[in-house]
Write a structure and sequence with these properties.
The protein is an alpha/beta fold. It has three domains: 216 residues, HUPs (Rossmann fold, 3-Layer(aba) Sandwich); 80 residues, Tyrosyl-Transfer RNA Synthetase; 67 residues, RNA-binding S4 domain (Structural Genomics Hypothetical 15.5 Kd Protein In mrcA-pckA Intergenic Region, Chain A, Roll). It is built from 18 helices and 13 strands. It has a six-stranded mixed sheet, with helices on both faces. A five-stranded mixed sheet has the order 7-13-12-9-10. Strand 9 and strand 10 form a beta hairpin. It binds one RNA strand through helix 15, helix 16 and helix 18.
RNA sequence: GGGGAGAUGGCCGAGCGGUCAAUGGCAGCAGACUGUAAAUCUGCCGGCGUACGCCUACGGAGGUUCGAAUCCUUCUCUCCCCA
């Protein structure tokens, strides 16, 4: 295999990246790799404590894929060790402690999902419990002696939590060190991560130096805000576009992002190159184009990336039908009535609402339509054999027959 | 080791014996307006009952009281100050 020129490689590496630290070092690494015809080791750590991936994760996975496309060795480190330890204090809910089996199951699902982005054939997958579990207490103390409390407190979230008097457990200081040990173990040349990972990635650099290795370069990527345009994309905020979402969902959710996010989404979620990003910026700035149309293009681009052109077209058509024309879908889940039932009960039991109370409220709020006609009667009854399409809110449907 | 403050609904945060399912903000849901954008306005926002009602809920366990998120005891956890 022969590598592209360093400049050409850098064009792709820079795409969408926030920071490359230090840039001259990565150039040297690339040069050396090209001269010796030896791929670089590119590390990406993942946290298997949450099983659902979204296009926010996709940003960094995509970057790893770029390196794969350039011929380098991508390594996915599954942080099963840290997931198992979890957070004994129970304060930090983002890190529940998992059993080995759970961590493993999540890891498998993670790998399965990342297949839509990564070239799984050449991907190397390692579990960090393999080496972290093997460390004994004096190893750990030796490791901690290489870092100071003051430096740890430099990490953004530690600083904030310390200042706002929220607890920081001691063991949390060990996570960056553990992650750094992964880099040492791997002799990583480059580590990727979100900007929130910058501190941890830099610790990896320091530790590699301590252990007599050439320090890794780091490539950080911007965090992608969710569809609300404010919070970081996350399933628990409900503002995510899942990698496993259907084309229709991906398209629809994309259409709901705020205008200010369009460029960023092109850059990070649609993998657009610099030229494309520039032209989008230009079109949005000229004031003649309705941003909605640019967003439609974005929606297609994102769906296309994961599902292909045909699905992108279909998703757009579906969107136009359901949302723009407020029609009902051709296909929806169907249920059969065994006896005459109150509409409220049907909606709740079909799972369209969480409770009967909610169903009742929505009916009162004119949010329920039967075959396109608003039904505000909470006593409305459906009889056996009656065929009707129920629409709750904007996008919850069920067909009764 | 000593002293002080605190733990409330998804989150933040009031309440400090009855009128508290618990003010307010954020998030969420729905409606109006739109480009399913944003902003704005309106309504909803523990569960069951179409209202009155019942059940569950103010860190855990006991207790005082006709009545407790509110008082007492104890346990668990957190923060601050001094050493």
């Amino acid at each position: 295999m022969s590598f592209l020129s360093v400049n050409n490689q850098m064009d792709l590496i820079r795409r969408g990246a926030e920071e490359i630290i230090p840039e001259n070092e990565i150039l040297k690494k690339l040069e050396k790799s090209k001269n010796e015809n030896k791929p670089l080791t590119i590390k990406l750590g993942c946290d298997p404590s949450r099983p659902d991936l979204h296009i926010g994760h996709g940003v960094v996975l995509r970057k790893l894929r770029h390196f794969q496309d350039l011929g380098h060795q991508a390594v996915l480190i599954i942080g099963d060790f840290t997931a198992m330890i979890g957070d004994p204090s129970g304060r930090n809910k983002t890190r529940p402690s998992l059993t080995l089996d759970e961590a493993k199951a999540n890891a498998e699902s993670y790998i399965e999902q990342s297949k839509v982005i990564l070239d799984i054939e050449t991907l190397k997958i390692l579990y960090n419990s393999e080496w972290l579990n093997a460390m004994n207490f004096s190893d750990v103390i030796g490791l901690t002696s290489k870092y100071t409390v003051a430096r740890m407190l430099e990490r953004d979230d530690f600083t904030k939590r310390y200042q706002s008097e929220t607890p920081i457990s001691l063991h949390e200081f060990l996570y960056p060190l553990a992650q750094g040990m992964d880099s040492v173990e791997l002799k990583a040349d480059v580590e990727l991560g979100g900007t929130d990972q910058k501190f941890n990635l830099l610790v990896g650099r320091d530790l590699q130096r301590e252990y007599g290795q050439a320090p890794q370069c780091i490539v950080t990527l911007p965090l992608l805000e969710g569809t609300d345009g404010v919070e970081k994309m996350s399933k628990s905020y409900g503002n995510d576009i899942g990698l496993m979402d259907s084309p229709e969902e991906k398209y629809g959710k994309t259409m709901s992002i705020s205008d200010g996010m369009i460029v960023k989404y092109f850059k990070l979620a649609a993998d657009a190159d610099e030229d494309k990003v520039e032209s989008v910026e230009k079109v949005l700035a000229d004031g003649k184009t309705n941003p909605r149309d640019v967003k439609r293009e974005l929606g297609r681009a994102i769906v296309e990336l994961y599902h292909g052109t045909d699905s992108a077209q279909a998703a757009e058509q579906h969107f136009d039908k359901i949302i723009v024309q407020k029609d009902i879908p051709d296909e929806m889940d169907e249920i059969e009535l065994k006896s005459d039932q109150l509409l409220v009960d049907v909606i709740a039991s079909a799972g369209l609402t969480k409770s009967k109370g909610e169903a009742r409220r929505l009916i009162k709020q004119n949010a329920v339509k039967l075959d396109g006609k608003t039904c505000a009667d909470i006593n409305h009854k459906l009889s056996v054999g009656e065929e009707v399409a129920i629409k709750v809110g904007k996008r919850r449907f069920i067909k009764v027959k």
